[in-house]
Task: inverse folding
């Protein structure tokens, strides 16, 4: 049962929901004094509900109102800086931005596929059994530790600017886009291999015992029993890393590829408005959100099909 | 020469000696029951036989061939020896039929149709033909354990090791699993089973071994072990079982 004092606070905080809360709490109070305890509880329950609405809806309304206020503060300067109408309605600006964004998408898609395969390979190498494979395990561990420590932007510089200067065979003559894909794959491969490794290690040893006892070899056990279960388990954390990778494709702009961020910078320099950056942000939003929801949907569907499992 | 010969087998986990000189012979078509308190080493012994554990001393021979120590082909050994675990250990990401056909296809190189036909025949025998395309988590514990038995049988083993295969089951599901073991015994399958189902052990076994702290303290025909054991420890163990209402 809500006391009328809490009801009063709620009604002051956000009257549309708070006043009903106050009314019900007063009524509950009166009924309780008359000894009609069940009815009093009913009104108390209603008062509590309204009070929660007062908090939930009220807070939301105030936050949104503050943001809108910001947009129009100082004679609408925020709106002019970030959402200049002339640029927002400029078809050629959009055309240029989308063309740039297509490069980000391509980098993301190609790097993603490479990362998925490469990271699984690294994870499996790190988990190879026996003393003979110790050097390989060590090598893989060094790679993972190092590339998780390096900032992605540093790797892009080192790979994208350094390799062409060193003029190495094979990797000395790639396009800038290929260098960025290479650099991002190295960085994200290290992260994702750790995700895979955690997944593989989470498979109970009894699954391995069952597979081996049927005569399957170590590699067959990994391939048919352990890795498929591990991959299913790590989809949610993988999803997180995918989104990170998608955003980090913006790094491509530092070595002069005309991606969406570079193009936004050009427009900004030409027109003196940050609106193009807002447009770039919007493009990332438009792609990332449906992508996330789609992967979640896939995951839920599969979970529904093969529930649980030890 | 017995079909399975276990000579002076030792097994340590760190400092703990879990098996301390096990001697045991199993003849073809025999059913040998291992009984003994929890922690006495029954599971470890079974796991040593199909090389899921590496033994620290002694020797194991199957059909005359040494199957322990250096230079053995563990994958070949495991094709001959099937094992079923207390916790079923089915592969949760595969349908029942795929659980059963995986090893025959990948290890024996059987083609898909043949493997599936064989699996379906075995499933029918245990009354689960209609579950072939279900995932394991749709099955009751008893059904899962029957699938696990079929999965082991599909490799055509000459020896089956059953490690407390009814201990994780609700009481009303125990019988459906034991019936299959009974059938296998009557068909002459050579088996070793660790069990707490003393009534069942009495009924199916050719020989009962009482394990105590890593040694076989006493072995003999079931009438002898259950009726007139010669060791005090065996008597104490059986008394505890009777008091718990399991015999
Ligand atoms: N992998 C292992 N590592 C360490 N100790 C183990 C391991 N497996 C079994 N043990 C120990 O060995 C002893 C015998 O276990 P087990 O063979 O499972 O007995 P039982 O099956 O008769 O209950 C127990 O004390 C157990 O704790
Ligand atoms: Mg056990």
Result:
């Amino acid at each position: 049962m809500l006391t009328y004092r809490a009801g009063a606070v709620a009604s002051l905080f956000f009257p549309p929901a708070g006043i009903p809360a106050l009314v019900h709490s007063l009524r509950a109070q009166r009924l309780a004094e008359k000894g009609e305890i069940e009815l009093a509880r009913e009104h108390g329950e209603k008062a509590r509900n309204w009070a929660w609405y007062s908090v939930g809806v009220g807070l939301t309304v105030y936050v949104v109102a503050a943001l809108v206020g910001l947009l129009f503060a100082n004679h609408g300067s925020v709106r002019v800086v970030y959402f200049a109408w002339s640029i927002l309605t400029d078809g050629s600006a959009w055309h240029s931005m989308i063309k740039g964004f297509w490069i980000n998408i391509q980098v993301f898609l190609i790097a993603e596929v490479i990362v998925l395969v490469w990271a699984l390979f690294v994870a499996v190498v790190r988990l190879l059994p026996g003393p003979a494979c110790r050097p390989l395990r060590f090598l893989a561990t060094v790679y993972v530790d190092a590339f998780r420590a390096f900032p992605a932007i540093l790797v892009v510089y080192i790979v994208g600017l350094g390799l062409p200067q060193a003029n190495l065979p094979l990797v000395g003559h790639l396009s800038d886009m290929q260098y960025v894909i290479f650099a991002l794959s190295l960085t994200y491969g290290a992260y994702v291999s750790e995700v895979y490794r955690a997944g593989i290690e989470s498979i109970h040893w009894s699954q391995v015992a069952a597979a081996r006892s049927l005569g399957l070899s170590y590699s067959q056990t990994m391939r048919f029993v352990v890795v498929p279960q591990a991959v299913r388990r790590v989809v949610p954390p993988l999803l997180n890393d995918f989104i990170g990778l998608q955003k980090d494709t913006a790094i491509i702009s530092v070595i002069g590829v005309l991606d969406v961020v570079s193009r936004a910078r050009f427009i900004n320099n030409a027109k003196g408005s940050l609106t193009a950056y807002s447009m770039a942000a919007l493009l990332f939003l438009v792609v990332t959100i449906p992508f996330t929801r789609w992967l979640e949907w896939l995951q839920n569907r599969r979970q529904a099909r093969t529930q649980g499992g030890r | 020469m017995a079909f399975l010969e276990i000579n002076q087998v030792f097994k340590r986990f760190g400092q703990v000696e879990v098996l301390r000189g096990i001697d045991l012979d199993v003849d073809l078509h025999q059913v040998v029951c291992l009984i003994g308190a929890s922690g006495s080493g029954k599971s470890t012994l079974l796991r040593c036989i199909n090389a899921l554990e590496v033994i620290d001393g002694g020797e194991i021979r199957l059909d005359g061939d040494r199957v322990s120590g250096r230079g053995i082909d563990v994958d070949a050994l495991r094709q001959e020896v099937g094992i079923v675990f207390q916790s079923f250990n089915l592969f949760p990401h595969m349908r029942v039929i795929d659980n059963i056909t995986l090893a025959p296809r990948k290890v024996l190189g059987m083609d898909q149709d043949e493997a599936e036909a064989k699996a379906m025949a075995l499933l029918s025998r245990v009354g689960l033909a209609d579950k072939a395309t279900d995932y394991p988590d749709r099955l009751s514990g008893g059904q899962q354990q029957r699938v696990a038995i079929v999965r082991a049988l599909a490799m055509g083993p000459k020896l089956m090791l059953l490690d407390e295969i009814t201990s994780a089951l609700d009481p009303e599901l125990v019988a459906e699993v034991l019936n299959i073991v009974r059938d296998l015994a009557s068909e002459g399958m050579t088996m070793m089973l660790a069990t707490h189902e003393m009534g069942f052990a009495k009924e199916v076994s050719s020989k009962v071994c009482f394990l105590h702290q890593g040694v076989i303290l006493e072995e003999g025909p079931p009438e002898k072990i259950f009726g007139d054991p010669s060791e005090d420890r065996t008597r104490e163990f059986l008394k505890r079982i009777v008091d718990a209402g399991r015999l």
